[in-house]
Design brief:
191 residues, alpha/beta, six-stranded parallel β-sheet, 6 strands, 16% strand, globular
C-alpha cells in the first residue's frame, strides 16, 4: 500500500483465502517485519490457509526470528546484510547492535529450513568489503549481491545517495571468484 498505509491483517487474510489455488506462498517484507509483535500469529494464520512463507529481514530482532523458526512458521529467510561488520553502522546510517545481527546470521545459517543472505551493493562498498561480508557469514547456502539502483519514482531517505557511484554488475562478477570460496552458492542478481 502506498504512503505507509497499514494493512488490516483480517482483511489481508481474507484476500489470501480467496486466492488459494492461484497463489501458493506469501512473502513478508518491510520495513522490518520482525518489529511487528503479532507477526507470529499472522504467519500462523497464513500457514493455516495452506501457504508457504518467506521472511525478508534485516536481522535486528533475533528473538522474534528465533521464535518464528522454532514454531516452523517460515519456510525461507532472506537476510539483508548492509556491509562488513566494521562498516555496518556506516551503511545503515545509524548505530547498530552488531551482536544482534550476528545472532540472526547464526539463526539463518543453523535453523532456517532454507534461506539466503544478500547485500545490495550500496555506493561506497568495495569488492574487498564484499569478500569481508562473505568471510563474516562463512559458509551459508546462498549469498547474493544485488546492484544498487536509485529508485526512479520514490525519493531516497538520503537523496545524496542517488548521485554516488556504486559497483556495477561487471565489477560484481569480477569480484565473485574471491567471494565464492566462502559460501556454498549464490551469485549476482542483475535484474
Amino acid at each position: 500500500m502506498a504512503g505507509g498505509a497499514k494493512l488490516d491483517p483480517t482483511d489481508l487474510l481474507a484476500r489470501l483465502a480467496d486466492r488459494r489455488g492461484f497463489l501458493d506462498s506469501v512473502v513478508v517484507t518491510g520495513g522490518e517485519p520482525t518489529l511487528q509483535p503479532d507477526l507470529g500469529s499472522f504467519l500462523l494464520e497464513v500457514r493455516r490457509l495452506g501457504f508457504s512463507t518467506k521472511l525478508d529481514t534485516n536481522g535486528t530482532v533475533p528473538e522474534r526470528l528465533a521464535d518464528l523458526l522454532a514454531r516452523g512458521l517460515v519456510d525461507y529467510v532472506a537476510m539483508d546484510l548492509k556491509g562488513p561488520p566494521e562498516r555496518y553502522d556506516e551503511f545503515c546510517g545509524t548505530a547498530v547492535d552488531l551482536p544482534r545481527i550476528e545472532q540472526s546470521i547464526d539463526l539463518v545459517r543453523s535453523r532456517a529450513p532454507d534461506g539466503e543472505f544478500r547485500t545490495t551493493v550500496a555506493p561506497g562498498l568495495a569488492a574487498r568489503d564484499l569478500v569481508r561480508v562473505a568471510q563474516w557469514i562463512q559458509g551459508p547456502r546462498r549469498y547474493f549481491l544485488q546492484p544498487f539502483r536509485a529508485p526512479v519514482e520514490k525519493s531516497l531517505v538520503d537523496p545524496t545517495w542517488a548521485g554516488r557511484d556504486a559497483l556495477g554488475v561487471a565489477a560484481l562478477r569480477a569480484a565473485w571468484p574471491d567471494i565464492a570460496p566462502h559460501v556454498q552458492g549464490g551469485g549476482i542478481r542483475d535484474a
